Amino acid sequence: MQLAWPVKGLRTWIVTTGYPATPEPQPARWRGRPVLDPQACRAADGCAACVAVCLPQALRLEPSAASAEDSRPDRLVLDYGRCIMCGLCVPACPSGALQVRPEYELAVCAPGDLRVTLRWDAESGEAR
């Protein structure tokens, strides 16, 4: 069983797939990147359930630089550069704001492009 793929490659001299011209099908229970729905997220109301279960701290609550004297967080950051696609944040979210999508192509030119930031007004709790 373990030698089937190398033996096939040696017989046909084809050892790679047709990706990216032909997308590869993913396994049935494969997890891709988590996607945040800003309208459903309750982080502005004090919910931090997804942040608490995120092991690599890809989900973080942060205060903005302007409100350094006020330590209340006013943004939720989802950093795909740190995310290990474990999916633990999805069942932890009580409002269903996080979903796992089968997308896996995350190539960008700058590391900052791997961050999704949800901001809200710290006093009113409304998302911006």
Q: Over all CA atoms, what is the radius of gyration?
A: 20 Å
Shape: elongated
Number of strand elements? 5
How many domains, in number, for the residues? 1
Mean pLDDT: 84
Order of strands across the biggest sheet?
A: 2-3-5
Number of helices: 3
For the record, give the distance between the C-alpha atoms at the N and C termini, rounded to a whole number: 54 Å
Question: Fraction of residues in helices?
Answer: 10-25%
Main pleated-sheet profile: 3 strands, antiparallel
What's the helix and strand layout?
Layout: H1 4-12, E1 33-36, H2 49-53, E2 59-62, E3 75-79, H3 89-92, E4 98-101, E5 115-119
Antiparallel strand pairs: 1-4, 2-3, 3-5
Summarize the structure.
The protein has helices at residues 4-12, 49-53, 89-92; strands at residues 33-36, 59-62, 75-79, 98-101, 115-119.
Written description of the protein model:
The chain has 128 residues and is α+β, with helices and mostly antiparallel strands. It has a single domain (28-119), classed as Alpha-Beta Plaits (2-Layer Sandwich), CATH 3.30.70.3270. The chain is 14% helix and 17% strand. The radius of gyration is 20 Å and the shape is elongated. The model has no long low-confidence stretch (mean pLDDT 84).
